[in-house]
């Protein structure tokens, strides 16, 4: 298990990977994003099957996020979480996340246990284009809030032609994974979550799904981002007695803040990159 930072408002440094599969209720910022994370393993356990990571590249212009729901238990989940962390570090300076996604899928396949797989979201925010690239591997689709229109929308991921696509990680080594690219403006929000939220009941015995979650978010209305996740979780819990009590629960909220890459980090990036390459090969 990797424990998260304790202090809210922590700043992720260049070439840093942060995260794990333990409980968390904190805020982290990068050069491009503010991130609020809530993760609660089932039954107050010290670690769970939900794995979350956040990384920042050599210059800070690339922020990468991963949220996965691993179907497995105990030491196996901890091992997979460690492998995912290593892959996030290895690909930390790659703008295109395709190689990372394929590597993560291969790692799950290599476990060799057909009962161990994961649904997951891997996303990359690139400051120069203001774009969030999202890959969805059989996971509940994220929701995106457009500050200009005031609307919450589901982030759909197109299928890959001529290949089983966007299926959970570890099911098939030849699976294809597509990407959705979201242009974001300062103040836009993106909400990622594991299936405990998506599959919660609406009070009438039906699953909330994307439509139900969007209705709740619309009811909450304009609110400070740091208050959104607690308010959403409280409202989902009150809808039905069993909601959010039978599984791990993780929610990650992203907000673009418009901060430029500091000149110091731009100048130091080549040296950081070369130092990392040297360490990776020695």
Overall pLDDT level: 88
Low-confidence stretches: 1-8
Q: Cα-atom Rg, whole angstroms?
A: 18 Å
Placed side by side, the strands forming the largest sheet appear as 1-3-4-13-12-9-10
Strand content: 25-35%
- Helix count equals 6
**Largest sheet descriptor:** 7 strands, mixed
Question: Brief description of this entry?
Answer:
The protein has 282 residues and is an alpha+beta fold. The protein has helices at residues 74-90, 98-111, 195-198, 209-220, 225-239, 263-280, and strands at residues 10-11, 17-20, 24-29, 33-40, 50-56, 62-71, 117-126, 131-137, 143-146, 151-154, 180-183, 189-193, 249-256.
Provide a descriptive summary of the structure in words.
There is one protein chain. The protein has 282 residues and is an alpha+beta fold. The chain has helices spanning 74-90, 98-111, 195-198, 209-220, 225-239, 263-280, and strands at 10-11, 17-20, 24-29, 33-40, 50-56, 62-71, 117-126, 131-137, 143-146, 151-154, 180-183, 189-193, 249-256. The protein has a seven-stranded mixed beta sheet with strand order 1-3-4-13-12-9-10. Strands 2-5-6-7-8-11 form a six-stranded antiparallel beta sheet, with helices on one face. Helix 1 (74-90) packs antiparallel against helix 2. The two termini are 26 Å apart. Residues 1-8 have low confidence and may be disordered.
Topology (SSEs and partners):
Layout: E1 10-11, E2 17-20, E3 24-29, E4 33-40, E5 50-56, E6 62-71, H1 74-90, H2 98-111, E7 117-126, E8 131-137, E9 143-146, E10 151-154, E11 180-183, E12 189-193, H3 195-198, H4 209-220, H5 225-239, E13 249-256, H6 263-280
Parallel strand pairs: 1-3
Antiparallel strand pairs: 2-5, 3-4, 4-13, 5-6, 6-7, 7-8, 8-11, 9-10, 9-12, 12-13
Helix pairs in contact: 1-2
